[in-house]
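Hi C.,

You asked whether I'd gotten around to modeling the 241-residue construct. I have! Everything is below, sequence then structure, no commentary in between.
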Amino acid sequence: MCHSALERLYDYPPERRELELLHNLLREEWQKNRSKENYKPLFKRSSGEHDVSAEREWGKGALDLLSNYYELEDPRRVVIEPLKREMWVQATLPVKNSDLVDDEFLMRGIVDRIDQTKTWDGETVLRIVDYKTGKAPDFKYSKAMNAKIADEAMWQLKIYALLLEQMKKGNTLEDFPMEGCLRCLRLLYLTSVSGKGQYLDFDLGHTEEKRSDVLEKTHQELSDIWTNIRVLIDKQDPTAF
Protein backbone atom coordinates (compact mmCIF):
# COMPACT_ATOMS: atom_id res chain seq x y z
CA MET A 1 0.00 0.00 0.00
CA CYS A 2 2.81 2.41 0.87
CA HIS A 3 4.54 1.62 -2.43
CA SER A 4 1.39 2.36 -4.41
CA ALA A 5 0.81 5.64 -2.57
CA LEU A 6 4.40 6.74 -3.18
CA GLU A 7 4.14 5.85 -6.86
CA ARG A 8 0.92 7.82 -7.28
CA LEU A 9 2.33 10.83 -5.43
CA TYR A 10 4.51 11.67 -8.42
CA ASP A 11 1.46 11.89 -10.67
CA TYR A 12 0.93 15.30 -9.08
CA PRO A 13 2.94 18.50 -9.63
CA PRO A 14 5.53 19.28 -6.91
CA GLU A 15 3.48 22.03 -5.28
CA ARG A 16 0.64 19.56 -4.56
CA ARG A 17 2.78 16.82 -3.02
CA GLU A 18 1.86 17.57 0.56
CA LEU A 19 2.04 14.95 3.30
CA GLU A 20 -1.74 15.08 3.64
CA LEU A 21 -2.08 14.10 -0.03
CA LEU A 22 0.25 11.15 0.45
CA HIS A 23 -1.71 10.01 3.50
CA ASN A 24 -4.95 10.28 1.55
CA LEU A 25 -3.49 8.27 -1.32
CA LEU A 26 -2.71 5.50 1.15
CA ARG A 27 -6.27 5.62 2.47
CA GLU A 28 -7.60 5.40 -1.10
CA GLU A 29 -5.37 2.43 -1.88
CA TRP A 30 -6.49 0.60 1.24
CA GLN A 31 -10.16 1.37 0.64
CA LYS A 32 -9.79 0.00 -2.88
CA ASN A 33 -8.05 -3.21 -1.78
CA ARG A 34 -9.27 -4.05 1.74
CA SER A 35 -12.21 -6.16 0.54
CA LYS A 36 -10.12 -8.28 -1.83
CA GLU A 37 -9.72 -11.93 -0.93
CA ASN A 38 -5.97 -11.78 -0.29
CA TYR A 39 -6.42 -8.94 2.24
CA LYS A 40 -9.57 -10.08 4.05
CA PRO A 41 -7.76 -12.50 6.44
CA LEU A 42 -5.27 -9.86 7.64
CA PHE A 43 -7.44 -8.51 10.44
CA LYS A 44 -9.72 -11.44 11.16
CA ARG A 45 -9.96 -12.80 14.68
CA SER A 46 -9.95 -16.54 15.33
CA SER A 47 -13.70 -16.22 15.87
CA GLY A 48 -14.05 -14.95 12.31
CA GLU A 49 -14.94 -11.39 13.33
CA HIS A 50 -13.17 -8.42 11.83
CA ASP A 51 -10.64 -6.82 14.19
CA VAL A 52 -11.24 -3.10 13.68
CA SER A 53 -8.67 -2.02 16.27
CA ALA A 54 -5.93 -4.10 14.62
CA GLU A 55 -6.77 -2.61 11.22
CA ARG A 56 -6.71 0.89 12.70
CA GLU A 57 -3.33 0.23 14.34
CA TRP A 58 -1.91 -1.09 11.07
CA GLY A 59 -3.19 2.01 9.24
CA LYS A 60 -1.59 4.32 11.79
CA GLY A 61 1.72 2.49 11.37
CA ALA A 62 1.53 2.83 7.58
CA LEU A 63 0.81 6.56 7.86
CA ASP A 64 3.83 6.91 10.18
CA LEU A 65 6.03 5.23 7.57
CA LEU A 66 4.91 7.74 4.94
CA SER A 67 5.54 10.61 7.36
CA ASN A 68 9.09 9.31 7.75
CA TYR A 69 9.47 9.48 3.98
CA TYR A 70 9.01 13.25 4.07
CA GLU A 71 11.86 13.59 6.53
CA LEU A 72 14.15 11.76 4.12
CA GLU A 73 13.06 13.26 0.84
CA ASP A 74 10.65 16.16 0.41
CA PRO A 75 8.84 15.38 -2.88
CA ARG A 76 7.82 19.02 -3.19
CA ARG A 77 11.47 19.92 -3.69
CA VAL A 78 12.60 17.11 -5.96
CA VAL A 79 14.48 18.95 -8.69
CA ILE A 80 14.50 16.13 -11.24
CA GLU A 81 11.38 14.06 -11.69
CA PRO A 82 11.70 10.25 -11.59
CA LEU A 83 12.31 8.90 -15.10
CA LYS A 84 10.43 5.69 -14.35
CA ARG A 85 8.19 4.34 -11.60
CA GLU A 86 7.12 0.74 -10.97
CA MET A 87 9.11 -0.43 -13.98
CA TRP A 88 9.28 -4.12 -14.89
CA VAL A 89 12.81 -5.29 -15.68
CA GLN A 90 13.66 -8.72 -17.04
CA ALA A 91 16.36 -10.48 -18.99
CA THR A 92 17.37 -14.00 -19.92
CA LEU A 93 20.85 -14.52 -18.52
CA PRO A 94 23.33 -17.15 -19.68
CA VAL A 95 24.60 -19.50 -16.98
CA LYS A 96 28.25 -18.67 -16.45
CA ASN A 97 30.84 -21.45 -16.68
CA SER A 98 28.26 -23.94 -17.92
CA ASP A 99 29.13 -26.82 -20.24
CA LEU A 100 25.56 -27.01 -21.54
CA VAL A 101 24.49 -25.42 -24.82
CA ASP A 102 22.11 -22.46 -24.50
CA ASP A 103 22.08 -22.79 -20.72
CA GLU A 104 20.16 -19.77 -19.45
CA PHE A 105 17.57 -18.58 -16.94
CA LEU A 106 15.03 -15.78 -16.75
CA MET A 107 15.21 -13.08 -14.07
CA ARG A 108 12.71 -10.29 -13.56
CA GLY A 109 11.47 -7.83 -11.00
CA ILE A 110 9.89 -4.43 -10.44
CA VAL A 111 11.99 -1.30 -9.87
CA ASP A 112 10.23 1.24 -7.66
CA ARG A 113 11.91 4.27 -9.19
CA ILE A 114 14.69 5.35 -11.52
CA ASP A 115 16.07 8.87 -11.13
CA GLN A 116 18.60 10.96 -12.95
CA THR A 117 20.95 12.56 -10.43
CA LYS A 118 24.45 13.91 -9.91
CA THR A 119 27.19 12.11 -8.02
CA TRP A 120 29.71 13.59 -5.61
CA ASP A 121 32.15 14.02 -8.52
CA GLY A 122 29.60 15.91 -10.64
CA GLU A 123 28.69 13.15 -13.09
CA THR A 124 25.07 12.92 -14.28
CA VAL A 125 24.01 9.32 -13.72
CA LEU A 126 21.00 7.06 -13.28
CA ARG A 127 20.00 5.86 -9.83
CA ILE A 128 17.77 2.93 -8.90
CA VAL A 129 15.61 3.68 -5.85
CA ASP A 130 13.82 0.99 -3.89
CA TYR A 131 11.36 1.74 -1.08
CA LYS A 132 11.55 -0.51 1.96
CA THR A 133 8.82 -0.64 4.59
CA GLY A 134 10.94 -2.90 6.81
CA LYS A 135 13.58 -1.59 9.18
CA ALA A 136 16.96 -0.46 7.90
CA PRO A 137 19.91 -2.66 8.91
CA ASP A 138 21.36 -1.87 12.31
CA PHE A 139 25.05 -1.18 11.70
CA LYS A 140 26.22 -1.86 15.25
CA TYR A 141 28.88 -4.44 14.47
CA SER A 142 32.47 -4.37 13.29
CA LYS A 143 33.39 -2.42 10.17
CA ALA A 144 33.82 -5.64 8.19
CA MET A 145 30.49 -7.08 9.37
CA ASN A 146 28.66 -3.82 8.69
CA ALA A 147 30.08 -3.77 5.17
CA LYS A 148 28.88 -7.33 4.63
CA ILE A 149 25.38 -6.45 5.87
CA ALA A 150 25.21 -3.43 3.56
CA ASP A 151 26.44 -5.48 0.60
CA GLU A 152 23.81 -8.17 1.18
CA ALA A 153 21.09 -5.53 1.51
CA MET A 154 22.08 -4.13 -1.90
CA TRP A 155 22.04 -7.48 -3.70
CA GLN A 156 18.49 -7.07 -5.00
CA LEU A 157 19.33 -3.67 -6.53
CA LYS A 158 22.50 -5.06 -8.09
CA ILE A 159 20.32 -7.64 -9.82
CA TYR A 160 18.03 -4.88 -11.09
CA ALA A 161 21.06 -2.99 -12.38
CA LEU A 162 22.30 -6.14 -14.13
CA LEU A 163 18.90 -6.66 -15.77
CA LEU A 164 18.71 -3.04 -16.91
CA GLU A 165 22.15 -3.25 -18.47
CA GLN A 166 21.19 -6.48 -20.23
CA MET A 167 18.00 -4.84 -21.52
CA LYS A 168 20.04 -1.89 -22.74
CA LYS A 169 22.42 -4.18 -24.62
CA GLY A 170 19.52 -6.11 -26.12
CA ASN A 171 17.68 -2.94 -27.15
CA THR A 172 14.59 -3.97 -25.15
CA LEU A 173 14.31 -0.73 -23.17
CA GLU A 174 11.32 0.86 -24.85
CA ASP A 175 10.59 4.54 -24.30
CA PHE A 176 13.32 4.94 -21.73
CA PRO A 177 15.99 7.67 -21.95
CA MET A 178 19.17 5.90 -20.85
CA GLU A 179 21.12 9.16 -20.64
CA GLY A 180 24.01 8.81 -18.26
CA CYS A 181 25.42 5.56 -16.96
CA LEU A 182 23.60 3.43 -14.41
CA ARG A 183 25.81 3.97 -11.41
CA CYS A 184 23.93 4.59 -8.15
CA LEU A 185 21.70 2.41 -5.99
CA ARG A 186 19.57 3.66 -3.11
CA LEU A 187 17.55 1.74 -0.55
CA LEU A 188 15.05 4.09 1.04
CA TYR A 189 14.00 2.55 4.33
CA LEU A 190 10.85 4.08 5.81
CA THR A 191 11.84 3.05 9.32
CA SER A 192 14.83 1.92 11.40
CA VAL A 193 15.73 0.91 14.96
CA SER A 194 15.35 4.59 15.90
CA GLY A 195 11.90 4.77 14.32
CA LYS A 196 13.13 7.22 11.66
CA GLY A 197 13.61 6.71 7.94
CA GLN A 198 17.08 6.04 6.59
CA TYR A 199 18.98 5.96 3.29
CA LEU A 200 21.44 3.30 2.24
CA ASP A 201 23.43 4.25 -0.86
CA PHE A 202 25.80 2.28 -3.04
CA ASP A 203 28.03 3.45 -5.89
CA LEU A 204 28.61 0.76 -8.53
CA GLY A 205 31.84 2.53 -9.50
CA HIS A 206 33.09 5.70 -11.16
CA THR A 207 34.49 3.80 -14.14
CA GLU A 208 32.79 1.43 -16.56
CA GLU A 209 35.30 -1.27 -15.63
CA LYS A 210 34.43 -1.11 -11.93
CA ARG A 211 30.70 -1.14 -12.63
CA SER A 212 31.13 -4.10 -14.95
CA ASP A 213 33.11 -6.01 -12.30
CA VAL A 214 30.30 -5.57 -9.72
CA LEU A 215 27.59 -6.69 -12.16
CA GLU A 216 29.68 -9.62 -13.42
CA LYS A 217 30.08 -10.82 -9.83
CA THR A 218 26.30 -10.55 -9.35
CA HIS A 219 25.75 -12.50 -12.57
CA GLN A 220 28.12 -15.22 -11.34
CA GLU A 221 26.31 -15.45 -7.98
CA LEU A 222 22.96 -15.85 -9.75
CA SER A 223 24.45 -18.51 -12.03
CA ASP A 224 25.77 -20.43 -9.04
CA ILE A 225 22.36 -20.33 -7.35
CA TRP A 226 20.62 -21.51 -10.52
CA THR A 227 23.13 -24.34 -10.99
CA ASN A 228 22.71 -25.48 -7.37
CA ILE A 229 18.91 -25.45 -7.70
CA ARG A 230 19.10 -27.58 -10.82
CA VAL A 231 21.44 -30.06 -9.12
CA LEU A 232 19.01 -30.44 -6.22
CA ILE A 233 16.05 -30.90 -8.58
CA ASP A 234 17.91 -33.56 -10.55
CA LYS A 235 18.53 -35.51 -7.34
CA GLN A 236 14.80 -35.82 -6.72
CA ASP A 237 15.60 -36.16 -3.04
CA PRO A 238 13.53 -33.96 -0.67
CA THR A 239 16.08 -34.47 2.12
CA ALA A 240 18.76 -32.78 0.00
CA PHE A 241 17.07 -29.39 0.25
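If it helps when you're writing up: Residues 14 and 77 are 7 Å apart (CA to CA).

Thanks,
B.
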